[in-house]
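pls design
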């Protein structure tokens, strides 16, 4: 416990600096692959604190790598800093109140996610210097998790090939280390090209791209009956071809997210979605261009690392919330929608059974969640888990019931609960780093498990050949 107290004390001593970094990234609120100020802020800070920093990785201008030490083991932490479109929101206000309507906001807490590993790295570097600890400590700044799968490009191009142990965390409403899961995910644009004509005077001369989009969507809706239960398909029409109903639309576009438990499942399902698009083009006399812009691998948890993370989380819980922090959470807990309350009840029933009511009324879940259920979202950290032993975990940074990707999440992103949850995550990661630096057998056990679970096939590389990180 002495080394843990040492790390935790150091993190506490630097917390105001880390809060400042997180809050500034919250204010920058930069979208995917455009996080220039956020990445520079973090990289500059780490460089000023004695880390060797490489800026720009694998074609991603806003990625960075900060290193301290040399040799093995290589123990790494991942951070993120991209915001979500359309979620501009004033801080600390328990009602929807955009700062600038339609602009970005940190609805997934990536301002916190990126700052947490920095706090850990400061403490672990200090520990390594004072104790002569051998090995390499790394922090990866990872852009474009939302919608573009930035880590997938980093993994494909070898950024994690020499990493022995890797970890990350995520802001949330509960505390737990994540089991294997998270759905693999492809993002694909389907752009239809037709012929324009006057919809009343010469409709027979037109070939409607919008008709093709609609027919594709109908076809995919019928496909849902004939895919595995765990799969998910969502879409957004990104171009309707204009606003004039008396013109046959010559171009229209739809963006699809195709999810399933394994990358191989998604590959098979995506081919069937492609066929729906091709069939729609054939029916309407149009042509379709298919562009695969992002991929997310499924996530393979390393149980050896997970148990170490879980141990430190449980030792630190419950957190010492002040009355003011509980009151802060309460006002946001009361601001969730009726649908969010229904979902919260389901989560509470899974966790507490007949005693679910007391959890529903609790504004902060200040305990380790034993029954979190399957993670049905997607996370580009899955790619990293196929490259090296990896685990990620959630900590409480917002009031219970707060939905992800919401204005409520943005509003709490600079608040005291968010700061405390980030510091909690930093302490867990710091202690876990030291455990693996100090115990070669623990590193071996994690790598042995990873080799067995991932198997000889290794990384599935779901990205199309020749694809590059891009803004779309």
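designed seq:
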């Amino acid at each position: 416990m002495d080394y843990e107290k040492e790390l935790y004390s150091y993190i506490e001593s630097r917390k105001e600096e880390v809060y400042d970094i997180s809050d500034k990234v919250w204010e920058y609120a930069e979208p995917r692959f455009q996080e220039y100020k956020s990445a520079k802020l973090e990289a500059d800070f780490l460089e000023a604190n004695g880390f060797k920093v490489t800026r720009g990785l694998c074609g991603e201008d806003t990625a960075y790598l900060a290193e301290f030490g040399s040799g093995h083991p290589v123990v790494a932490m991942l951070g993120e800093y991209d915001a979500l479109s359309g979620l501009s929101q004033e801080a600390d206000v328990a009602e929807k109140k955009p700062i600038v309507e339609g602009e970005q906001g940190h609805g997934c807490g990536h301002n916190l996610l990126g700052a947490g590993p920095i706090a850990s790295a400061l403490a672990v570097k200090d520990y390594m210097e004072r104790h002569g600890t051998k090995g390499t400590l790394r922090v990866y700044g990872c852009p474009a998790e939302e919608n573009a799968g930035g880590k997938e490009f980093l993994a494909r191009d070898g950024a994690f090939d020499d990493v022995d142990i890797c970890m990350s965390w995520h802001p949330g409403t509960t505390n737990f280390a994540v089991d294997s899961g998270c759905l693999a995910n492809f993002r694909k644009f389907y752009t239809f090209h037709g012929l324009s004509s006057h919809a009343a005077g010469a409709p027979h001369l037109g070939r409607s791209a919008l008709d093709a989009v609609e027919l594709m969507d109908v076809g995919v809706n019928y496909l849902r009956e004939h895919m595995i239960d765990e799969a998910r398909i969502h879409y957004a029409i990104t171009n309707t071809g204009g606003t004039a109903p008396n013109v046959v639309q010559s171009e229209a576009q739809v963006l699809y997210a195709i999810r399933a438990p394994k990358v191989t499942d998604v590959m098979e399902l995506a081919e069937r979605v492609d066929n729906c698009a091709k069939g729609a083009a054939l029916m309407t006399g149009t042509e379709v261009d298919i562009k695969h812009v992002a991929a997310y691998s499924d996530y393979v948890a390393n149980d050896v690392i997970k148990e170490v993370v879980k141990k430190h989380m449980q030792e630190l819980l419950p957190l010492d919330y002040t009355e003011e922090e509980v009151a802060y959470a309460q006002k946001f807990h009361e601001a969730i929608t009726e649908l969010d309350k229904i979902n919260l009840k389901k989560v509470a029933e899974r966790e507490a059974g007949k005693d679910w009511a007391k959890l529903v009324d609790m504004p902060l879940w200040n305990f380790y969640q034993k029954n979190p259920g399957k993670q049905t979202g997607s996370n580009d950290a899955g790619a990293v888990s196929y490259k090296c032993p990896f685990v990620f975990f959630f900590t409480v940074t917002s009031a219970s019931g707060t939905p992800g990707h919401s204005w409520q999440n943005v509003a709490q992103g600079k608040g005291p609960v968010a700061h405390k949850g980030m510091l909690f995550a930093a302490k867990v990661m710091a202690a876990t780093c030291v455990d693996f630096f100090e115990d070669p057998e623990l590193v071996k056990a994690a790598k042995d498990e990873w080799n067995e679970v991932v198997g000889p096939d290794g990384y599935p590389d779901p990205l199309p050949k020749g694809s590059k990180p891009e803004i779309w």
